Amino acid sequence: MLGAADLDLGSPPLPAAALPRRFLFLQGPLCPLFRRMGELLRAAGHEVHRVNLCAGDWLHWQGPGCRSYRGRIADWRAHVGALMDDLSITDLVLHGDRRVYHRIAVECAAARGIAVAATELGYLRPGWMTIERGGLSTLSHFPTDPGHIRRIAAAAGAIDLSPRYPTSFFLEAAPDVVYNLTNVALWFLYPHFRRHTIYHPVLEYLRAGWRLLGKARRDRRAGAQIAELFASAAPFFVLPLQLEGDFQLRAHSPFASFGEVIDLVLASFAAHAPNEARLVLKTHPLDAGVEGWPDRVRRTGEALGLDDRIVFLDGGSLRPLFERTAGVVTVNSTAGLEALQASRPVKTLVPAHFDIVGMTHQGDLDGFWRAPQPPDAGLVDAYVRAIAAAIQVRGSIHNREGLEAAARNMVTRLLERSLNEPDAFVDPPPRLARARAMGVPL
């Protein structure tokens, strides 16, 4: 098996096929990553199949082994189950395990004993990708026991966490636009396709384009607000906003909208935070402005008597805030992990992947404002090394060199059957019971 520190070095030969396996790919990220993985798997002697669900899928991958599903979502379970049986599928690979087509396919695979590999953007951004066995986030099988995590880290050894594969804005934005506008233009080829986004892409792109024109102005304004915060002796807490369409919010939390999160956090802050404390809300970098969060926050803050204690940042970067913040509240954003790495207290509102005893604040939200529990730096370091070894690989879909690295590293993990290794698979998923008890629809 490749060592954890060797996952991104050069282009080592892929493991040879012992018994040929039969891989079924569903939707991937909006780039050629899955197609390249399929090419590598075929070259290693395995059988590869792909189902395209929309014109954008076809744009990224067509040719041998590809087929289209143009039926209704109501018929998808029977279709994908029969396909798994007819092709004797051994492995299912998909990006994001809670999209409606993927959720059903995972259930069908589980009933047949088919291995499931779920991919996502990396927890250790930039320059990393996630690939897990079975599920992601609250469905992750990665352990939550601190002792178990420390053992994985010890077995993994040193990990090179130096930044690689810098993100290209063009490679982040252009494939998204091309994919979604292809689906709009050629909708009649897949008339029953149900997209996983919540807004029509044309509306979202128009709003995003308009906001982009004002980005420099908003960044300057945010920079001035941060400077003012730093000049004051008053403590401040941070709530990073998540995208309304983020599956971390939609499928792995009990909240129907981030508006509910804002209302909950502001009410708790008004009732329990020290009078001198401020609350900083920061928009997501990809927020298209559809929801109108600044107005929502202003109205709620005024109703709670918080108008002079709330700072709304509609631009800039989160990272400078982690130098001084008294604590970060998040649903389950990876911004919470960044804050932990900066040794800042973090309160998650659901069992996030990094919600570990000793790392995050384990008391309730009301108590967090006055007595936030700082993270155990050694445990945070162990968690980062453990996930880097077991469920992260070097690579990026927003960098050409990084995409090739991600494809090779993911395929190596698949062929070595080393997902969630060493010893990083707990069954049942250790976050699941808590999530369900909180009302997460899983």
Describe the secondary structure blueprint for this structure.
Blueprint: E1 22-25, H1 33-43, E2 47-52, H2 55-60, E3 66-68, H3 76-87, E4 91-95, H4 100-112, E5 115-121, E6 128-133, H5 146-156, H6 169-185, H7 201-213, H8 215-231, E7 236-240, H9 247-250, H10 258-272, E8 278-282, H11 293-303, E9 310-313, E10 327-330, H12 335-341, E11 346-348, H13 365-368, H14 377-390, E12 392-394, H15 400-415, H16 432-437
Parallel strand pairs: 1-2, 1-4, 2-3, 4-5, 7-8, 7-10, 8-9, 10-11
Antiparallel strand pairs: 5-6, 6-12
Summarize the biggest pleated sheet.
7 strands, mixed
Question: What low-confidence regions span 5 or more consecutive residues with pLDDT below 50?
Answer: 1-7
Any idea of the CATH class of the largest domain?
Answer: Alpha Beta
Number of helices: 16
Distance between the termini: 34 Å
The main sheet orders its strands as 3-2-1-4-5-6-12
The fraction of residues assigned to DSSP E strands is 5-15%
What CATH architecture label of the largest domain applies? Answer: 3-Layer(aba) Sandwich
Output mean pLDDT. Answer: 94
**DSSP summary, beta strand count:** 12
What gyration radius follows from the Cα positions, in whole Å? 22 Å
Fold-level CATH name of the largest domain: Rossmann fold
Task: From the structure above, extract its key features.
442 residues, alpha/beta, Rossmann fold, 2 domains, seven-stranded mixed sheet, five-stranded parallel sheet, 16 helices, 12% strand, globular, disordered N terminus, Capsular polysaccharide biosynthesis/export protein, Capsule_polysaccharide_synth
